[in-house]
């Protein structure tokens, strides 16, 4: 857990891949959402101070914190399901 201004958030990094190394949480909806809203990654970086490393994590389905997910929902004025989706493990 991480503390930010006294608020604890959980990092989902350890839960984004299964035992075989397959991603089970992905950010495909994020890319659809920014396309639909006509917002570029350049705009996110320049106008909303989203880091290039976060954009890279989203591109490669790497883990991000729930605080970051909350921030993206606020910026894009959308639901969590518009940013991330869970694909059940088929093991």
Short key terms for the protein model shown above:
single chain; 91 residues; 434 Repressor (Amino-terminal Domain); two-stranded antiparallel sheet; two-stranded antiparallel ribbon; disordered N terminus
Report on the structure:
- There is one protein chain.
- This protein is α+β, with helices and mostly antiparallel strands and 91 residues long.
- The chain has one domain (2-86): Orthogonal Bundle (434 Repressor (Amino-terminal Domain)), CATH 1.10.260.
- Helix content is 40%, strand content 11%.
- It has four helices and four strands.
- It has helices spanning 28-36, 41-48, 52-59, 66-76; strands at residues 2-4, 7-9, 25-26, 85-86.
- The strands form two sheets. A two-stranded antiparallel ribbon has the order 1-2. A two-stranded antiparallel ribbon has the order 3-4.
- A hairpin with a 2-residue loop joins β1 (2-4) and β2 (7-9).
- The N and C termini lie far apart (28 Å).
Can you give me a brief rundown of this structure?
The chain has 91 residues and is α+β, with helices and mostly antiparallel strands. It has helices at residues 28-36, 41-48, 52-59, 66-76; strands spanning 2-4, 7-9, 25-26, 85-86.
